[in-house]
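Hi support team,

I submitted a single chain yesterday and got back a structure, but I'm not sure I'm reading the token output correctly. Could someone confirm the output below corresponds to the sequence I sent? I've pasted both exactly as they appear in my results page.

Thanks,
R.
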Amino acid sequence: MNDQEPPGPTGADHGADHGADGALPPYPQPGRPAEPHAESRVDPLADTQPYGAAQEPAPASEQPGHAAPGAAGQHSAPAWTGDPGHEREATRPLPFGPVPFGAAPAGPAAGDPAPVQHGRRLPAWTWPAVAALALVVGLVGGAMGAALYESSEDPAVSRGLSPSTTRTAPPISASNQSVSAVAEELLPSTVQILAGFDGSDGGATGSGFVLDTEGHVITNNHVVADAADDGTIDVVDSEGTTHTATVVGRSSVYDLAVLKVEASSSLRPASLGSSTGLRVGEPVVAFGAPLGLSQTVTSGIVSALNRPVTTGETDDTSSFINAVQTDAAINPGNSGGPLVNLAGQVVGVNSAIATTGGFMQEAGNIGVGFAIPIEQVETTAQQILSTGEARYPVIGATVQTGESREFQGARIDEVRDDTPAQDAGLRSDDLVVAVNGQRVTDGISLIVSIRTHQPGETLEFTVVRGGKESKVKITLDSEVG
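Hi R., thanks for writing in. Yes, this is the structure output for that exact sequence:
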């Protein structure tokens, strides 16, 4: 869960491949982004120490999931599909009315003789009774059909998020907005995650929050990735009750996972807000279980918005996030916990931190943390709860993402056959400098910029080739991840 941070701001956990897939507005400030200290890196927040065990500092190379620091060269990242064999720099993470069948037959015209009645005449009540019986049969049949349909579904996969099971209204009034009020509101919705890691039950500790009244919980993918197939995952609620959890679906690209536990009165859904209305300097509150310390609350401000960050050690474990940056203290174990505004609404999911860890130093908070915007969380959760899997947008090109990248745009390394990028006329060595009019500074910002959009959307790319600037439109394809 720890990554070595490439030049420029980085910091989400395990995700997709390095490629021109995804979408993000450019850096909020003009000019080249400030480069971090040469030894700075992004660390994932899940704590992979046994729960309750003493955590002794250890060399980064000896910690689970950590790659030893080293100079990163120029690399390219696939944007079309994951490419496990693709070499890349090492990084360290932490969802009518009825239509009539036809017109009623016309009655006899005026002056026509009355129709001849044959046989016994039916009582007047017969037809209303028949109609009522048909209605009852229809209702019963419909109910039975619905029941059969629902019983055929995967019990862990529902029909997506529903306003009837989630909360969005601000739970805290403007006259009572304080950190203590936010804590009182959110702690009952915050949980600790204990997941198997490297064969050890509870070897990874992280955080999460209750999404809805159906018992769905949001956390980071990197917290539960090792236990997703055959490991154990427990969710500990605010009352200290342990619930056995299963993975409904997860996305390594966005570093998100949806868990399912049996619905309980002790699991209260958190209210979902919006990150788009956040302002730099606005107070925010972080919740989670840093270093195994459950029900921990820290506060700070929004340090930056639309921050392109990435973490991961391989193409299978890399993620790219259009992050909310905060100085609220978050540490290993905070992964998956909610970042909340003073109205008591979740605006992001804590995912990674940047560190300046040198030799023999353990990763820890230095006031530079990153959260996945809640809009992406809702989109990914909706996909998982509707279909059981998450998808991300791609164009079918690889871009340079190493230390020697230009910071003047995203340089295209390769355009793959039969892809949206090829259809749009992109070529190797083209320089993408903007997406939908928003500046792109390097390969990472292009990937993040694409991934904040949805498959099927058409984006306008500004491309420089041979010193000449042109604009091309590309319709995003998709991959599972």
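A quick pointer for reading it: The two ends are 18 Å apart (CA to CA). Let us know if anything else looks off.

Best,
Support desk
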